[in-house]
Structures are given as structure tokens and as C-alpha cells.
Amino acid sequence: MTTFPEYPRYDALGLAELVRTGQITPSELVEAAIERIEAHNPALNAVIVKLYEQARLAARGPVSGGPFGGVPFLVKDLLSTIEGVPTACGTKLLKNLPVPHDSELMVRWKRAGLIPLGKTNTPEFGLTPYTEPLTFGPCRNPWDKTRTPGGSSGGSAAAVATRMVPLATGGDGGGSIRIPASACGLFGLKPTRGRTPTGPDFGEAWHGFAIEHALTRSVRDSAALLDATQGADLGAPYASPAYDRPFLNEVSTAPGRLRIAFTGKPFLGKVVDPEVLAALERTVRLLKELGHEVVEATPEIDNEAFSLAFITILAAELRADIEAVSQAAGQKVSVKNFDPASFGLGMLGKALSAQDYASASRYLQGASRSIARFFGGWDLLLTPTLASLPPLIGALQPSAAEKTLIRLVGSFDGGGLLKALGIIKPLAAQTFAFIPWTPVFNVTGQPAMSVPLETSSTGMPIGLHFVGRFGDEATLFRLAAQLEQARPWADKVPPGY
């Protein structure tokens, strides 16, 4: 017998309202969430750390006056920290090393009334658009368990899609909120750079590409959560433009007639699945029916140069991560302690020069300026979120031969040899073929969202990707709410859940 059978019907704000009006207690919500995790997680491997006793204790305490008072949630096991709990980042070296403090974002989540119930699966260092770390094993897509839920917030997406919790946190450094949102049929917003805090342990993450927020069932949950967490913290290297009213208010505000550019042209890839392009065409028709001006137009992006510069920055960041994790664990850097994909890219990072890094940074800054000029003529840009349906588990991994070569070269940390052999470039191209749009807007820092508007002929979710001007989450929330009303998705649940 379930504690609260109606639990899966509510979003986070709906559950908080039940608590506020005395219809349910936080303890009952925590038990309902635990029941769903225990029932569904074994087949998915979405939740890798369970904090049930801490959650039960928190639920018995005073209920926060925040917007989510008494609501359980799950936390991606990357970046944000919970006092006394390891943040493994998908690595075996950090798996048993507790962190001594809450991150600033965790402080704000708790202040909003959320109760952390556990941590969700993520690829090592959040590197890949699939969630298959060697340390914790692959996470599976609840719509088709042979396929990936995306990454790097794949565990969070699988958990929310199956109604284990109404929302779960995610980080997005190349699409890592938007990718799994599309793959699992959820709403996923990447805020403007600097909108949510990174302290006290980080200034900027991944050269400023990465930012944390959440995957949610409803638009209003995402807006209310951003209201509760936005704003620079002490020592922040930069802040997003201030906004003078709650984002939650935007959800009930009509967007007006928007000028929306759209394109199915892949920025960093070459081929787009016809089903995805058909979903884009249907969305264009819907937007026109809603009264928006929708015109095919695209910013000009040099595929090869942009991809190379992006990978250069990531390689350097990965090497720094590998060095920092090894030092924290008291270990020498060794290929035996890391997944082949991340260690291979880290080796490349070691082989690159400081000039390579600076030149890549300058190129991307120039490209961002050019893209910003494109948005001077448009309120939003629409693309698909992904170029294809979610791939099969293992399909985007390095091949067995590539893994063997990376481990062999990695035994003497031979990044220069790996670079000369050209192993990383085809692996990067394979990744960008799946996610040809999302990384661009991590570089520019613009807000972007994946909206679960479409479904494939086989029943898999297809997300549509909307990008706003820098600092303008408001327009995204207004349009998202309009789309949510026009094409409701709240009742779309994977079969069996």
C-alpha cells in the first residue's frame, strides 16, 4: 500500500501547496518519494546515493516558508555539494570522500524548502551527453531502457520522468540539462551565465560554460526555483543582468507576438534525423498558429573552428579536473582511476599549450559576439534539441579498440601521441553529431530551454530547443507556458510508470 497514491500527479509547487494547507506532511511526501525510488530505480540506475534517513529527519523539522516547503528532490552528483556527503562527479576517487559544507546553491535550495533525498547518476566529470560512468554503471531511459537518457544530467532526468521526484537538479556545460530533458520528455532550462551561484568552491565552471539549475515536469516549477536561487554569491566573477520581477510572474504573462528565427541546420554536426526535422516543422506551424512571426534564419557558425576551440577548452578543463581529483584523493594521476573518454580528453589537455587555450578562448569570444548580433533581429531562435533520438546504451562510447589504445597511451600519459594519432577528433565529431546545437549557447552564455512538445513514431520524446537573448529568461518562460497550455505534457509518462 502506497503512502500517498496521488503523489505522481503533482508538480513541486502543487505538493508544496498540499503541505501549506495541511493536506499532507513533508514526512508523507518523503515516504512517497522513497517508495517510488525503491520501486523504479533498480531498472534505471538513476539514483546512486540514497539519503533517506537525513531526508526523514529534515521532514520532521520545521517546514520552510519557501515556495517548495516540505518537497523532496534529488541532486545531481556533480558540482553542488551536501555537507557530509561525497560529491563523486562520476569518479571512483571521490566516491567515499565527504564534502565538509553545503554549496551556496544547496543552501538556497534548502532555504526554498526542498529536502534532498539522494544523488543522481552522471558521467565522469559530466563530460558526455550519455550517462554511463564505469564507477556507477549506465543509467537507462525509462521510455526505452535500451537507450540513454542523455547526459550529463541523465540520472536526474530519468528520476523526474518516472515521478520519483517532481524536480531534480542538473548542470549544463554543453547541453547537460537540455539534452536529457529532450531524451526523457521534460522541461529543461539552462539559465543565463551567472544567474545561479557557483560558490564557495568555484568561480566559473568549465570556463563559464557550465551553470546549474533543474529538470522539471512543469514550467512554473522551473521559474519558481530560479526565483529562489538566482543572484550572484560572494566572490562571483560575474553576474547576470538583474531582473526586476519574479520569473514565476512570467508564466502567467502572455508572450505577445514574438519574432522567432528557426533552423534545422546543424551548427556542429552534419546530419539530422528526418523525424526530428518533421517535429521541428510541426512546431513551426504551432508557433504560427499561436500568432508568432516565424522565419527560417540562422547565425553563421564555422563548424570545424568552433568545435575545435570548444574541445580545446574542455580538454584543458578536464586535465585540471583530473589533477585536482587525484590530489584530493592522495593519488598519482593514473589512467586506471578514470574512464577512458575523460582521461583521453584530459591527456590531450595536457599536450596543449597555454597559447592553444588562449587562442581557443579568443575565438569563442569572437564567435559569441557574432551570434549576439544575430539575436539583435530576433526575440528567440528555435532548433531541435538533439539531432536524433537517444542512442542505444554504449553507442557513443569509444570502441573497445579505442579504449585499449587510450589506456595504453595513458599508461605513460602520452597526450602528444594521442593528439598525433587523431583519436579524440572523431570521438568529438561523433558527440557533436548528436548535440549539434546545445554547446553553442554554453559558449555564448545565453539562456536556452528544451520543451517536450513532440514524440517520435516509436513513442520517444523529442524536445524543441529555444534560445533567448542574454539575460532574457522572461521571454522563454512566457513562451514555454503558452506552449505548455497549447500542447500539455504533464500527463505524458513512460509506459509502466
Please name the CATH architecture of the domain at 7-258: Alpha-Beta Complex
Kindly report the CATH topology of the domain at 7-258.
Amidase signature (AS) enzymes
Briefly note the structural class of the backbone. alpha/beta
β-strand amount: 5-15%
Give the strand line-up of the largest sheet: 4-6-5-10-11-9-7-8
Looking at CATH, the homologous superfamily of the domain at 7-258 is Amidase signature (AS) domain
Rough shape?
globular
Helix-strand pattern = HHEHEHEHEHEEHHEHEHHHEHHHHEEH
- The radius of gyration computed from the alpha-carbon positions, rounded to a whole number of angstroms, is 21 Å
Mean pLDDT: 95
Characterize the largest beta sheet: strand count, sense, and whether it forms a barrel.
8 strands, mixed
Query: How far is it from the N-terminal to the C-terminal residue, by CA?
Result: 16 Å
Helix content: 25-40%
User: Please, how many helices?
Assistant: 17
Number of DSSP E strands: 11
CATH class of the domain at 7-258: Alpha Beta
Q: Spans with pLDDT under 50 lasting ≥5 residues?
A: none
